[in-house]
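Table S2 (text version). Query chain:
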Amino acid sequence: MKTNTIFNIKTLAIFSFIWLFASCTNLDEVVLDEVLGEDASNPAGALAAAYDRLGDGTFVDHGGIFSLQEYTTDEAILPTRGSDWGDGGKWRDMHEFTWKSDNAVVVDNWNKLTNGITRSLTAIQSVEESSIPEKKLFLAEAKGLLAYYLYTTLDLYGQAPYRDPMNPNAPLQILKADTQIDQLIKDVEALLPDLAEMGTQQTHHGRFTKEAAYGFLATMYLNRAVFKDRFNASSNFNFTEAAATGTGTDMDRVIYYTSLLIDSGKYSLESDYFKNFARDNDKGKELIFAISQKIDYIRNGSNSFAYVCMERNQRTSAANRGTNAACTTPEFFATWDGNHDDPRFQQKYQYSDGTWFKNDGTDVSVPATDIVPKSANLPWFHFNRGIEFGPQYGPILLSSGSLEMINGRIKVSPLYMEKSTTTRMDFTPSLTFKNPAQAVFAQNEINQGARIFKYEFDPEGGNGNSNVDIPLFRLGGIYTMRAEAYFRKGNTGQAMDDLNKLRTSRKRESLYGSTAGRALTAIDQTVLYNEIGFELYWELYRRPQMIRFGKFDLPGTAKPASEPYRRVFPIPQSTIDVTKEFKQNQGYN
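Corresponding structure-token output:
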């Protein structure tokens, strides 16, 4: 993430002064990133460092929080594909529910999140000790980020570390999800008077604004019942409990905060659903809180969510390719039965001369007039978006290092797998593992799995870089939260109205007459559950959703029925070894 655009500072110092797990109580200075600026104690620099942790792999890479929130669900799976993606079994552990306290994904994400806590505490200290004109605003943002990192850590691990940033002798505190959720809600609500409204005081969707707080508070209230009773074996969570603050129940507060956003007039639903995830979405109409990404050759944005699904022989240019890793499961694909005409399911690409890439075997060529930005005049091939399945077509890379052309246009051909050259690139919705309990494909089976091309593949700057801003809270998700809250209160009509607002606001591409999505005529819990998935797939929401609806423990493809203790991850053993205040989560001893 390009942090130096957040505060319009030329060069930022990214430092941290608190080492949460140090045995001593001194506030030792620890250099976290060698981006050295004019003043290491600059409050804006310290706050930018806290924002920077959102990017830099944490919420923008498939191996970051995504791997915990999505690879453990029916929406995403990263199997071992022949000779690729074995990696000691760390990816398979996520979907097979065999992770332990030393799993590299579990450990790496714990370290990223606790580093985010550390950076936020550093920013709070730095701003508190300053006399800058923006003190109240920056302090509110720093505390908002702290709450966000703490909440995510408590959601995933059930525990989180904390130290008072203003007391150098403060002991390490271990916060627990069931007791801390109410305090987090109160803390964020207390910030509202000092947070800026988005668009004022030079803020934008990359800053923790008042509107970001509304989305965050709605999220916390939606999941509060789970936090308080995480290991309820029957998943009979009490969503009607009296709210931590204000009047009414948790669901009333979800409705209150989501309605503030929906009724504000500041946001509107994109008729083209996939604009929310395009390389030029920095002006997106739905984005409430997002990770601002730029290819700036300082810290480039991450292309991971696009790159991870695309096959190695799928090339947006002669210099780009995918990596043939993740896919979705048959269970999630099946939820779309009868809804393949939904504008959120799939979208075909049209070039400026009117040519459509249909990816159905009828394509001969597409124009070579689109050029990869900042490239040596490389033609840019656009793959379709959404959920891609079946035989795949596209350009072929010649031994000369250029894409195959025909009459000055990019030739479209049937594609084969790069590492199994006689295997047709056929993204089968089914996954046929030899051992049903293990997500392992033979070399000639590495084509399997419907792929998610939701985020636009940005070919500028290499396979790993992207200008796509990554949504954390956006208007479409706000509507799903309000619909769920209405449903849990028994207001099924209002829930259906919100879901239909999403459905009918989205339009298909002009190839299909720009038709709007079909409205629902009835709703039950299954319909609600599926509709949330249609709107939010691959946006790091599936695991909490599955837990709320009692589906996380159920068996599925390469996943056994699991015990409730798996609803949180273990504290890394390396942390427990050096920090005796932590006790391992139940079930992992």
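Notes on Table S2: The longest strand covers residues 287-291. Residues 1-40 have pLDDT under 50 and may be disordered.
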